[in-house]
Design a protein that fits this description.
Distance between the termini: 20 Å
Radius of gyration: 18 Å
Number of domains: 1
Structural class: mainly alpha
Number of helices: 10
Mean pLDDT: 84
Strand content: under 5%
Largest sheet: 2 strands, antiparallel
Number of strands: 2
Low-confidence stretches: none
Length: 271
C-alpha cells in the first residue's frame, strides 16, 4: 500500500491526502450521533491542540521548505523574500475572504460573532461557511506540500506528516461544527452532513495546490509560504480566541504546547 501511494503522481497523492483529512472531519462530525454537546473545557483543549499543530506545521512543513528551496535555487541573500511575500499575501488573502464572505464565529463563551458582508443566511449556514473558509488553506497546504515533494523541494514524509497533523486537528473541528448545528435544532443527520461536507473543499484545494506547483515550479516557494500565512491567520483569528474565551485558558494553552510539540517532533523526526 505504501509503495503504491509513493508511486502515484503528486496530484493524486495530494487528492488522497485531502480525502483522508475529510474522513477525519467526518469522524469528528459523527460524534453528534453519540453526544448532544461537547463540554466547553474539552472544546477549548481541542481548539488549543489544533492551533498548536497548525502553528508547528506552518513552519516545519511549509516555511522552512520555502526558504530551503529558495536557497537551493539561486536566491542568495534574498532567499527569505519568497517566504516573506508568500506568508503575508496568504494572511492578507484570508483576511479579504473573511471580510467578504458572510460567516459566523461560534465562540465557546456562547457569544456569536457575525463577520463578512450583511446576509440573511441562517446561523447554521453562516457557521458552516466559517469552517469551510478555514478548511481551504489547510487543503492548499497539503497540496503544495505534496507538489513540493514531487519537485524534490522537500521530503515526501514531510507532506505525509502535514496531512496527518491536519487530519488530527480536523477530528475535533468536525465535532465543533456538527454539535452547535444540532443545538440550533437541526436533525443529527443534517448536522453530520453539514460537518463532513465542510471538509470537501480540502480535497478540491489540495488537488489545485498540487497541480499549481507541479505546473509552475517558480511559484513553489511562494505557494508554500502562502499556505503557511493562511494557516497562521486561521489559528490567530479563530482557533486561539475560541480556546481562550470560556475560562479554560490555562489548560487550552497547555494543549497548544502539546499540539505544537507533537507536530514538531513528527516533522523533524520523520520529515
Amino acid at each position: 500500500m505504501v509503495d503504491w501511494f509513493l508511486s502515484l503522481n503528486p496530484i493524486w497523492q495530494a487528492t488522497l491526502a485531502g480525502v483522508f483529512t475529510w474522513l477525519m472531519t467526518a469522524l469528528g462530525s459523527s460524534l453528534v450521533f453519540l453526544f448532544h454537546e461537547v463540554n466547553d473545557k474539552l472544546l477549548a483543549i481541542m481548539n488549543g491542540f489544533a492551533a498548536g499543530v497548525m502553528f508547528a506545521a506552518s513552519y516545519w512543513s511549509l516555511l522552512a521548505p520555502s526558504i530551503d528551496f529558495a536557497e537551493q535555487n539561486g536566491y542568495g541573500i534574498w532567499s527569505f523574500v519568497p517566504a516573506l511575500v508568500g506568508f503575508l499575501v496568504g494572511g492578507l488573502f484570508l483576511r479579504v475572504v473573511d471580510g467578504v464572505v458572510p460567516h459566523l464565529h461560534n465562540r465557546t463563551s456562547g457569544v456569536e460573532e457575525t463577520e463578512g458582508v450583511a446576509s440573511s443566511l441562517s446561523s447554521t449556514t453562516l457557521l458552516f461557511l466559517a469552517v469551510t473558509i478555514h478548511n481551504i488553506p489547510e487543503g492548499l497546504a497539503i497540496g503544495v506540500a505534496f507538489g513540493a515533494a514531487g519537485q524534490g523541494a522537500s521530503a515526501i514524509t514531510s507532506a505525509l506528516v502535514l496531512a496527518l497533523g491536519i487530519g488530527l486537528q480536523n477530528f475535533p473541528e468536525g465535532a465543533a461544527l456538527s454539535m452547535p448545528i444540532r443545538a440550533e435544532g437541526s436533525t443529527k443527520g443534517h448536522a453530520f452532513n453539514m460537518g463532513q461536507s465542510s471538509a470537501l473543499f480540502e480535497i478540491i484545494s489540495a488537488t489545485i495546490g498540487a497541480w499549481l506547483v507541479t505546473q509552475i515550479t517558480v511559484i513553489l516557494p511562494y505557494a508554500l509560504a502562502f499556505a503557511a500565512g493562511a494557516m497562521v491567520f486561521v489559528c490567530v483569528e479563530e482557533l486561539i480566541p475560541n480556546s481562550q474565551t470560556n475560562g479554560h485558558s490555562e489548560v487550552a494553552t497547555m494543549a497548544f504546547m502539546i499540539g505544537f510539540a507533537i507536530m514538531m517532533t513528527l516533522d523533524v523526526a520523520l520529515g
